[in-house]
Design goal:
Helix content: 25-40%
Mean pLDDT: 91
Number of domains: 1
Number of helices: 3
Largest sheet: 4 strands, parallel
CATH topology: Transcription Regulator spoIIAA
Order of helices and strands: EHHEHEE
CATH class: Alpha Beta
Strand order of the largest sheet: 1-2-3-4
CATH architecture: 2-Layer Sandwich
Length: 117
C-alpha cells in the first residue's frame, strides 16, 4: 500500500516490550510487528508510534524499554502514550487499573514523548 501511495500516514500501536508482547497481545509472535516498525523507519514513511498504558499491565520500566528499542531502531517521531480508558465492554474484558503509572519515572531520551487524554 505504501509503495503504491494508497496510504499517507500510519499510527502503529506498540502494545508491549518484546518480553511481554506475546503475553499481552495473545499472538504467537512479535515478528510481524517489529518487521513493520523497521520497514516504516527504513522507508522514512510518516507514522506515529503509540502505546496505551494500563498500569496493571505496563509499568514505567516497560515504557522505558520500548523507548530504548525505538531509539535503537532509529525511530525519530513522537512517541505517544495514552491512558487506558475503562468502558464496560472491551474486547479483552479489562478491569479498571488498580496501580498508578508514574510519568516522573520515565528516563530522559532523544525521542519526544507526548501524553494523550
Amino acid at each position: 500500500m505504501i509503495d503504491f501511495k494508497l496510504v499517507d500516514y500510519i499510527a502503529l500501536d506498540y502494545k508491549a516490550p518484546a518480553h511481554k508482547f506475546k503475553e499481552l497481545t495473545k499472538t504467537a509472535s512479535s515478528e510481524k510487528f517489529f518487521k513493520t516498525l523497521d520497514m516504516l523507519v527504513d522507508k522514512k514513511f510518516p507514522f506515529e508510534t503509540r502505546t496505551t498504558i494500563h498500569p496493571d499491565l505496563l509499568n514505567t520500566d516497560d515504557i522505558n524499554t520500548i523507548v530504548l528499542d525505538l531509539e535503537e531502531r532509529k525511530y525519530t517521531g513522537t512517541y505517544y502514550l495514552q491512558n487506558y480508558l475503562h468502558v464496560e465492554n472491551t474486547l479483552a474484558h479489562m478491569d479498571e487499573p488498580t496501580k498508578y503509572f508514574d510519568k516522573n519515572l520515565l528516563k530522559n531520551n532523544s525521542i519526544p514523548i507526548e501524553f494523550r487524554n
